[in-house]
Amino acid sequence: MIIRDISRDDFDQWAELFRGYREFYRLSPDDDVILRVWEWIHDESIEVRALVAVLDGQVVGFAHYRSFHRPASGTVGIYLDDLFTGPAARGAGVGQALLTSLGRLAGSEGRSVVRWITAADNATARRVYDKVATATPWVTYDLFPIRSAGRDA
Predict the structure, then answer these.
(1) Interval 94-142: pLDDT, tens
(2) Contact call for residues 72 and 87 (beta carbons, < 8 A)
(3) Using CB atoms within 10 A of its CB, is residue 133 exposed (0-12), middle (13-18) or buried (19+)?
(4) What are the protein's UniProt keywords (predicted)?
(5) Cα dist. 141→117, 138, 151 in Å?
(6) What's the 3-state SS for the chain?
């Protein structure tokens, strides 16, 4: 297995995997999102990057990541947004290889941590995560944009 930076030539295989990722998380099919994320990955002014796992010449997994600043510690970490292995390659160590590569990248770039979230009931992925990382006690919240017609109070 080879873990490497994504290239423009990977679009078709990556897009198929990204569609599978979105389906896994029950997100509506949306080719505009796929194209937008693809352009983000290749736009130097946007922090989103991607690694791919290649097995027997096929892209079988990906990791989307970016740097994030950590004011409390005065450091910069790597935030893993998305990690996915195609169904045919599951059990082949793709996820662990991608995570290990991110750990090495963090070390070579002087980053303080590689961090991500996952669903509490994602037991299959969590077995992999527990091999390479430490679960934290933090709880995640989402605050959605508040749109008001008038002035803020």
Answers:
(1) 999 999 999 999 999 999 999 999 999 999 999 999 999 999 999 899 9
(2) no
(3) middle
(4) Acyltransferase, Transferase
(5) 11, 10, 26
(6) CEEEECCHHHHHHHHHHHHHHHHHCCCCCCHHHHHHHHHHHHCCCCCCEEEEEEECCEEEEEEEEEEEEECCCCEEEEEEEEEEECHHHCCCCHHHHHHHHHHHHHHHHCCCCEECCCCCCCHHHHHHHHHHCCCCCCCCCCCCCCCCCCCCC
